[in-house]
Amino acid sequence: MSEILRVENLKKSYDGFLAVNDVSFAVAKGELKALIGPNGAGKSTCFNMLMGQLRPTAGEVYLDGERITGKRPREIWRRGVGRTFQITGTYQSMSVIENVQMALMSHHKRIFSIAPRAWKLYRDEAMGFLDTVSMADQADRPCSVLAYGDLKRLELAIALCHRPRLLLMDEPTAGMAPSARIELMQLVADIVRDQGVSVLFTEHDMDVVFAHAHHIMVLNRGELIADGSATEVRNNPQVQEVYLGGGTLFKEDANA
Ligand code: ADP
Ligand code: MG
């Protein structure tokens, strides 16, 4: 499998404090990869450098072979790197489908068109995206009445409107109940399988990570200490050292 993302010796220093220290990894095309690690490990800092919000102190980022280090968020987004935000970016006063239509207008460069024609134009396409995230039955509801998990699914539909090649999801299931977390990540896994999108995500819930990620990376104090399959990561002594303090992060081990 070829790579969609390659990160080489990435570093971020805050006044001498190394939040991300010499991190190198790759994400393959069509892969669902998790980046896990304790609070403060440097996961969000890493994501922000991939998206262009933060300039790396050192290192390089390549998207499908093209160097994108130091490019602006919009330039990176335009090259097909999508992102879902921890705080939902939907317009509360609009309906579910109108939010998706807005994203489609932006994607097709008819930015904020008020022509009724434009709204009609993208309704079918928007419905298709809502169908992908199982939200078609809620198309005409105002966003303000949506349940939190449904807002997250809408957010995912909006991100998909821009046909990302790579989707970055920093704690996509934050604030959700355990069953809803599993459901949302199942949906993401289906999208990865059906649409060939690559996804890099961070997540606290180890059940979600081990159930869905193809490969898992572990970051600790800014350093990548593991990168491999679920079994490899579980059996990694350094990972066990970091997580054993928490006791039951690996459910199977706890039940064994
Ligand atoms: P994670 O997402 O894994 O919880 P972060 O990337 O948010 O970790 O943070 C990594 C480390 O960098 C933490 O110790 C945090 O306090 C520090 N940090 C993050 N942002 C800044 C900043 N703007 N200035 C100084 N230190 C920061
Ligand atoms: Mg974070």
Automatic annotation (TrEMBL):
SMART domains: AAA (SM00382). GO terms for cellular component: plasma membrane. The keyword ATP-binding applies. The keyword Lyase does not apply. GO terms for biological process: D-alanine transmembrane transport; L-alanine transport; L-isoleucine import across plasma membrane; L-valine import across plasma membrane. InterPro entries: AAA+_ATPase, ABC_AA/LPS_Transport, ABC_transporter-like_ATP-bd, ABC_transporter-like_CS, BCA_ABC_TP_C, P-loop_NTPase. GO terms for molecular function: ATP binding; ATP hydrolysis activity; L-isoleucine transmembrane transporter activity; L-phenylalanine transmembrane transporter activity; L-valine transmembrane transporter activity. Pfam families: ABC_tran, BCA_ABC_TP_C. Keywords: ATP-binding, Nucleotide-binding, Transport. Residues 5-246 form the ABC transporter domain. It comes from the Bacteria. This is Amino acid/amide ABC transporter ATP-binding protein. It comes from Salipiger abyssi. The lineage of its organism: Bacteria, Pseudomonadati, Pseudomonadota, Alphaproteobacteria, Rhodobacterales.
